[in-house]
Amino acid sequence: MKITPGKQKGLEAVSDSRGVIAAAAMDQRGSLQSAIAKDKGIDKKAVTYQMMCEFKEIVSRVLTPHASAILLDPEFGLPAAKARSKNAGLLLAYEKTGYDNNRPGRLPDLLEDYSARRIVAAGADCVKILLYYNPFDPPEINVIKHAWVERIGAECAANDVPFFLEFVGYQDGMDEKSIEYARKKPAIVTGSMAEFSKPQYGVDILKVEVPVNVIYVKGMSPCKGESAYSREEAKELFRKAAAVAKKPFIYLSAGVSNEVFNESLELAAEAGTNFSGVLCGRATWKDGIPVYAKQGAKAFEEWLNTTGVTNINNVNARLKAAKPWYSFYGATSSSMA
């Protein structure tokens, strides 16, 4: 593979000096509004545009000195993009928040007033899309999702900008935090990685969930009750998922605590997976939402400067095991990929 100049430039912009992606994520919209509203004791609609922008701006300003990039959304995140540290690249989300509740299959949609070209014009180094995906869903659902990703891949190729595809697994009628789903998760993650590694999608970086739920790995500290897999079984599931990837991949934190995400990354390192970094959001700043909601912006910034920075540095410490994204292609530098 020979990467194009625009894609090379974009990937270099969001990577650290080692070629590892150590990115913060702050593109939450609907879920962030709901969380702030809950802790403020107000209706979700009362969470204003100014509140959302302020929260994201503070996260960007405090955390990006410790990150290679930040993922934001164009709806509330453009002021935060301007507040980021000069060392940090920028990824922008292209999808609408949530999914279509009126049709089966959690079908996605794009922001109506944006395109890949407009995402780049807004200052993005890379385009990111989130897709809820289960490879075992009925074909009539997945064919729609496949075509959707193909169109976005073609848009990104036409604009010579890197395409990050984030897929989040699910099983209709099942709680994704349950042990029942934990048993299904490895096959869902592995099948998704295999599918979107195919060349027709034009994906440059796969943003993936870890293939196990660490709170159900026997013997690990987050596991307080019944288990779905032993530590050795979990490591083998990491290896199986990594083996099907034909594109560089990074892990997402998927809303878990800092402790759980760190232990997940340690397990990935023990398994020897060739992951190329992280895009980590809520595991660094989620616990600060009540501080912002109840005590205000200044208290939240103080919390981030202590606990938030500690959280992101905890994650960064686990990236020693990560491999440069370009090494996935057997290259020794990004210019050779």
Supply the key terms:
single chain; 337 residues; alpha/beta; TIM Barrel; 12 helices; 12% strand; globular
CATH superfamily: Aldolase class I
**Major β-sheet strand ordering:** 1-2-3-4-5-6-7-8
The share of residues in helices is 40-55%
Q: Give the CA-based shape.
A: globular
Number of strands: 8
Residue windows where pLDDT falls under 50 for at least 5 positions: none
Give a topology summary.
Layout: H1 5-13, E1 21-25, H2 30-40, H3 49-63, E2 69-72, H4 78-83, E3 89-93, H5 116-121, E4 126-132, H6 139-158, E5 163-168, H7 179-196, E6 205-208, H8 231-244, E7 249-252, H9 258-271, E8 277-280, H10 282-285, H11 289-295, H12 297-317
Parallel strand pairs: 1-2, 1-8, 2-3, 3-4, 4-5, 5-6, 6-7, 7-8
Helix pairs in contact: 2-11, 3-12, 7-8, 8-9, 9-12, 11-12
Would you mind describing this structure in some detail?
This protein has 337 residues and is α/β, with parallel strands linked by helices. It has a single domain, classed as Aldolase class I (TIM Barrel, Alpha-Beta Barrel), CATH 3.20.20. It is 43% helix and 12% strand. The chain is built from 12 helices and 8 strands. It has an 8-stranded parallel beta barrel with strand order 1-2-3-4-5-6-7-8, surrounded by 5 helices. β5, α7 and β6 form a beta-alpha-beta unit. The longest helix is centred in the C-terminal third of the chain and has 21 residues. The mean pLDDT is 96.
